[in-house]
Amino acid sequence: MDTVTITLKKVPGLYLECESVTPDKFAGKNAEEIAALPCAEGKRNYVLGDWFEIAGAAGATAADTKIVVNGAGTDKCKYIGAWMTAGEVVVNGTADMFTGAWMEGGKLTVKGDVRSFSALQMKGGEFIIEGRAWNYLAAAYRGDWRGMQGGTIRVKGDVGSDLGTFMNGGTIIVEGNADIHVGTHAEGGTIIIKGKAHRRVGGQMVKGEIYVFGGCDVMMPGFKKIEEREIEVDGEKHVFNVFIGDLGERHPKSKGEVVYGHLYTLKE
Amino acid sequence: MTKCIKNVICTFCGTLCDDLEVDVSDDGKRIEQVRNACAIGAEKYLHVGNPGRVVVPRMRQADGTYKDVSYDEAIDFTAKTLLKAKKPLMYGWSSTNCEAIAEGNVLAEKIGGVVDNCATVCHGSSLLAIQDTGVPSCTLGEVKNRADRIIFWGCNPAHAHPRHMSRYSIFPRGFFSAKGQKGRKIICVDCRETDTAKVADHFVRIKQSYDYEVFDALRTLLRGEEIPDEVGGVPREKLQELIDICKGGRFVTLFFGMGLTHTLGRNHNIDAGINFIRDLNDYTKATLIAMRGHYNVTGAGQVLGWQYGYPFACDLSRLTTARHNPGETTSVDLLVRHEVDACMVIASDLAAHFPFEATRRMAHIPTITLDPHICMSTELSDLHIPVAIVGVEVGGCCYRMDNVPIDTRKVIDAPEGVLTDEEVFQRINKRVDELLAEAGCKDAAEYLEYLEKQEA
Amino acid sequence: MTEIIIKNGHVFDSVSGLKGEVADVCIKDGKIVESVGNGATVIDAAGKTVMAGAVDVHTHVAGPKVNLGRWYRPEDKFRLGERCSAKMGPNTHIEGGFSIPTVFKTGYEYARMGFAFLMEAAMPPLYARHVHEEIRDTPIQDEAALPVFGNNWFMFEYLKNGELDNAAAYVAWVLRQTKGYGIKCVNPGGSEAWGWGLNCMTVNDPVPYFEITPKEIIDGLIATNEHLKLPHSVHLHSNNLGNPGNYTTTLDSLKIAEGHKANNAFGRDTVLHHTHLQFHSYGGTTWADFESKAKEVMDYVNKQENITIDTGNVTLDETTTMTADGPFEYHLSALNHLKWANVDVELETAAGVVPYIYGKNVKVCEMQWAIGLEIALYAKDMMRTMITTDHPNAGPFTRYPRVYAWLMDKEYRDAELNGFKWSSKVIDATTLAEIDREISLYELSQMTRAAPAKVLGLGSTFGGLAPGMNANVAVYDINPDNMPKGIELENALAKAAYFFKDGVKCVENGVVLEANPVVKETYWVDAKVPENKQVLHDVSEKFLKYYSINLENYDVAHHYVPHPHVIEIEEA
User: Fold this and answer.
1) Do B227 and A222 touch (CB under 8 A)?
2) Could you tell me if B310 and B329 lie in one domain?
3) Residue of C nearest to B136 (CA)
């Protein structure tokens, strides 16, 4: 795997749209060619070379390409790793909105925080956030009922609101706490919150699994406890209270059985 | 002799009453009297004659004072400011007509602006919910003719839409509702006992920010499942009673306002409400209508919708694509995140309604306000362009809260020389075209590079 | 004095009787002429196909439900993760949306395919202003809109009482008020019943409270239409759309035309246009035993000469359904669980919107696709058969070239059919696999030009290339002596080599040249009737008591229609 290191030369005044910063766009290009890839700040069109020092060359394919993003101001860069299908991206800092959005494969690591709408409608790959994630992590795009489809996200810190809205598949592990609206409208997938979830967990959920180790401040009235069970989650074995819901929402039948969403809270 | 103009459309709130009678002086310059309007609507017409109207554009000076300038200077300044900015915000639009909005949106496409209307701090969250889950709705006349169950949830028309209850929702007698109020059961759900609650047959007081949970409880009950003894401060029996009242009706309409759109969870509250109404349709007929605020905030969304595909928060800054992502392309976020570098406020008062941080940012970047009145935004702007008042001094199309378009009427002349919003936008568009042509640039992106070269 | 000569193209035009003969088409001042002078601009069309500008007889491109679709489907501008909002040419506006394109994209895309006239197929009269605002902002295309009458309280009353004069006077009044073109009827009675959450499933189900049947409504509307001598016939979307076994309702509805005779001065010889017939040609009793009845329905259509139809071809895309058939949309959302929008309109109509995915691995969708093609291929009289996708209901209009190519190339459609997940089931339940017919370029010119123009009463100006007609001319990179197949044919039909609208070159090599290259007109019909005090009284009474706006604020003022083309009809 060949590594390209790009380092911001100055902090963008507004925000830089970096849709070109993915292994897919870099693949097969040398530093000069990468420097010529487009980016934009508002209506002003630039090339990556205007903003970044570029060192190294990409591999022949996306899968052979690793990108390291450095420098003060990465938190002013949007769309890093968005639509990536393979390869690796590491951001040594905080990344702005849409980081890893529509990601299909490869590995994306952000050492700082990610802002809202990251991993939007993610399809596959691995996404590690060492800081916290803001709102709408792995949610569906506005109006779409097809949220996260696959892949794995691990957040070391807390997450904001609207985590995994309309989630259909994949796994999200949050080691910290979650704000309101977790897995709203979910129809599949797994969300694991090691800390506490504030409120509105699994609202309008049709299908899928949500584990909240630290419990919820307010439970949704549409969830009903059915049993207690020992389950292994993310390598830890615990006894959980098992709820089904949201009973206010429609639920499909599979082989004659009604399918519900499941919410698990740690038994005290 | 005064002449009486009938069927005047009140350009105040989203109810867009169209039965006002306005007495106008012989010379067509003064409004003498207004009949049929609510107190707010009447004032909208009567205040026009008050002294102190701004009739020429005003430009901020180095010492902070305003100086009168010509429309030509104002339009040149606006065109240059918008062209020079990398990402200007064009916010407002809710108190002007669709003709001006259409012209203004095309300007935004040309100069690479973000177009956002007052829905962004009002029913934008309702629009997000509609995007997520649809909306079973109807016109206000349907409510008048058929509805026998009215729910006001988180709204207070007694104060915000004063004639709503008499024209459409509580009192009117319609085709299938000949008994008027007597044939209707009125339910008010709120965390406070408002004046609307006082005229309701049933007042359900819920704990603030528990709307989502209460809707979920109602939906769960409707499916015959169990809920806890109390949800959001409301006993289960009371919620069951609410369900029984709704199911016992032939036609249910739910009206909702800021109490749902701007409390915890915002769009999710509306989403849950929409789905409650959807579910009720399995048992009876049920609809819901957003209590839109400004008289043409709905129209601002309609025009933007047919031109660029989104109801608000439309980012045209890349010049080649239109994007919409509330939370990112919404005015408050853009200002607070320092994502825009110029601002144009049109027919709305940004400074009076936005969070302090957003307003502070607006005050720090070049700002132009287009408004007939002196308002907080004009006082924080670099340029104030006065215009004729829509529905009073100029007509034009406006959309009611149920999306019904109504052609507003002109009742008196604007002060001499004062342009309309539409004319101002036409002239800015023309000036932008001239500036691009003079510089030999095909678009605003090239123009920015041209400016940078000029400076270098 | 602009003169243009399009030289040496293969011209397909039933109006001038050309079936691919090499000929020149001459244009002067926006009209087709016999000849032009030596100074005329020459367009070389050698080895290319030349046709008149196309006419869409049924499409939903402007108005409240269309815009509601745009509002609530931002994801339609973000298709499969790719942005579907782009500036396609240096001089044109940003074009957004896939299934519900913006007005700019609508005008430009139709122009690229060679269209000149669009009929917005459902205008709620109370929302007419909205329809006209969008029409005004849609570039290039001449347009008209059909107000809906099939669930109108006034019409229920007049038709139930057999008051034909009153019905006619009321329709004429509404056309004038709304700047409308003719009589549209959607789910007669059913959308009013929907006001109470009910529906009318057959032509004999009485409308709740109003006690009139759909059959009486359709019959009365046809009589009213011919009494007024309107250019277009009654335009019908019959009851029971989209349900297995509905073809009997369709036949019952079509048969109502049997007692009627066309009466107009526009060259129209039919009295009933049944739209999107594909959705109405289903056999079986459930989705499990669902089968095609296209042959049965088309056998009737072929022999009943005073009716016309359009197909409503399914394009196998993710699209957005929208119709004044309110109850249908509610039931559809209960099937696919996608977001349901509904707007009931006081005294007049209803509407619903639901996204829908016509999946290539869903048996019902594959069947619907086959049925739509069967309908076109069973047609005997191409002057009574038009191709539509009921945009956007069965698919976006931008897929017309693909539908044309399926109809014109058996191999292309069979490849699709055989590639289906349920292809053997579809082959069993339909007859598509047995049909060898391929629609010719000449037949295509009838189905997409001459026929729709004729049924709309516009046959003297649209749909043909005879001298005196509007100079709407499409030139395609199709050499009939070396016919392209499949995807190549589709691409050639999607991007005209040239398109002239009213003699102005609007498209070259598939690129729209200017944002608003030509003045577009809005057509509406002003039918004169004797003064009718009863109707005027009824109108003022109903507005006073039941409408939510005042009568004086109902009329669509002329400034909404800046370039009107008014068709005036003398008193009956």
Assistant:
1) yes
2) yes
3) C342
